């Protein structure tokens, strides 16, 4: 996962894979989470908490990273 | 994507969002306490905790439960009985002044199904009631529902157009980049990041919400078609004067649906789910998948004999399956918390979108005044990437 932030944007290659990798991964995880708890209980509930929790955790991580960057 | 295509999608995104944003903000804000309505009702004492009785304590006679519940509102008649999905010992009785009263006159009494003791009766005008009414129809009945359903469709179009626009905006940025160069850049990046994270959830909750706004129409259609067919032999009979035993009707329904459990029932002459002559007992399955699906069993309101049963049509099945996906009440407390967090993130996406539109307009006016180039392009750069 490439999370090093380039602040010199113009030299980056325009690659669909680079743009869509994260959103697609999050969409697949969210969909799995929404369905898991619907088809089962117990273990599948836990699966749904984890898979739906990941997008939330990712958001928190990126927003927190920005906060640190601004404080510096 | 051609610059023209970007411009067109950008227009779609702006206008679908602008029209729906205020209503969606209202829906997100009122939806937040509704996620936890069960817990809030217990905390505020609106619903008392059921007494601690030994496990396996049998349920009280249903006729007694209905009589006790209805007696709370002298002169009212029972319309429905609902068995609580989460707390098996709770039974809710829905009563109304008459059989033709508007649904807003309905009152709910919650009882302990084992002791027939009243545990609560939510007051109309209470906080949760107002939240629910705002969320469901803004106190405007069916037109309010259909209007909010249309807002849900605009929301879905806004999400899809947002996804289309995501690529040109993100061409030169890594995922999750939040630039600090200006307030507008920061909020644009946050809008993109938070929007990308909530795409699937927001689409699912928005569209299932829209499906829910059609519930009344779907049930009405079912009554006019399939139910009417099932009760045809009763077509010439006068409306039932006095219904027979509720318990006997439920026992009869249970006898023909082994392995299923009671979901809710409609009394003869209630406005929905039934006709003038039948108890209609809706039975549901007991596995997570089948617990949302129900089978109506028609029971003669006088003799307690089963007259018909038939699976629900696809559109009512779709409605029932879509409900948990809207409410987020199908995976315990952790799922409710995730629902709440995603709801708050959606509020930020809506708010930042509105801010970006206002800021862009203001800067456009500024451009006209000082004839200076805009620091941040209002639409993504349309030059080819090097």
TrEMBL record, chain A:
TM stretches of this protein: 20-40, 46-64
Protein keywords: Membrane, Transmembrane, Transmembrane helix
Protein name (database record): Uncharacterized protein
TrEMBL record, chain B:
Stored InterPro entries: PepSY-ass_TM
Name this polypeptide is given: PepSY-associated TM helix domain-containing protein
Keywords: Membrane, Transmembrane, Transmembrane helix
Pfam families per the UniProt record, alphabetical: PepSY_TM (PF03929)
Domain of life: Bacteria
Ranges annotated as spanning the membrane: 12-36, 146-169, 190-211, 337-359
């Amino acid at each position: 996962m490439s999370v090093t932030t380039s602040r010199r944007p113009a030299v980056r290659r325009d690659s669909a894979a680079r743009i869509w990798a994260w959103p697609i991964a999050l969409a697949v995880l969210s969909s799995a989470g929404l369905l898991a708890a619907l088809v089962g209980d117990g273990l599948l509930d836990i699966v749904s908490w984890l898979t739906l929790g990941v997008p939330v955790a990712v958001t928190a991580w990126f927003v927190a990273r920005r906060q640190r960057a601004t404080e510096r | 994507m051609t610059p023209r295509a970007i411009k067109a999608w950008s227009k779609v995104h702006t206008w679908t969002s602008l029209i729906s944003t205020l209503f969606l903000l209202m829906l997100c804000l009122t939806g937040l306490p509704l996620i936890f309505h069960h817990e809030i009702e217990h905390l505020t004492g609106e619903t008392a905790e059921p007494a601690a009785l030994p496990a396996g304590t049998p349920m009280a006679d249903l006729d007694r439960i209905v009589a006790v519940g209805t007696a709370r509102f002298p002169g009212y008649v029972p319309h429905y009985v609902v068995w609580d999905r989460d707390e098996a010992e709770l039974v809710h009785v829905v009563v109304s002044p008459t059989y033709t009263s508007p649904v807003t006159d309905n009152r709910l009494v919650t009882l302990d199904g084992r002791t027939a003791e009243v545990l609560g009766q939510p007051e109309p005008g209470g906080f949760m009631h107002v939240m629910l009414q705002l969320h469901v129809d803004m106190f405007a009945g069916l037109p309010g529902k259909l209007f909010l359903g249309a807002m849900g469709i605009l929301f879905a179009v806004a999400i899809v157009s947002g996804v289309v626009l995501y690529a040109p905006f993100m061409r030169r940025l890594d995922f999750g980049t939040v630039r600090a160069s200006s307030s507008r850049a920061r909020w644009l990046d946050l809008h993109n990041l938070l929007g990308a994270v909530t795409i699937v959830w927001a689409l699912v909750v928005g569209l299932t919400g829209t499906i829910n706004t059609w519930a009344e129409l779907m049930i009405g259609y079912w009554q006019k078609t399939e139910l009417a067919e099932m009760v045809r032999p009763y077509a010439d009979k006068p409306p039932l004067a006095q219904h027979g035993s509720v318990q006997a009707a439920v026992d009869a329904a249970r006898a023909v649906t082994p392995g299923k459990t009671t979901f809710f029932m409609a009394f003869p002459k209630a406005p929905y789910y039934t006709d003038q002559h039948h108890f209609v007992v809706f039975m549901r399955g007991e596995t997570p998948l089948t617990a949302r699906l129900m089978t109506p069993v028609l029971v003669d309101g006088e003799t307690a004999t089963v007259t018909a049963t038939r699976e629900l049509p696809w559109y009512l099945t779709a409605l029932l399956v879509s409900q948990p996906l809207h409410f987020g009440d199908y995976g315990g407390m952790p799922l409710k918390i995730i629902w709440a967090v995603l709801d708050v993130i959606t509020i930020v996406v809506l708010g930042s979108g509105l801010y970006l539109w206002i800021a862009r307009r203001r800067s456009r006016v500024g451009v006209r005044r000082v004839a200076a180039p805009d620091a941040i392009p209002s639409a993504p750069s349309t030059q080819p990437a090097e």
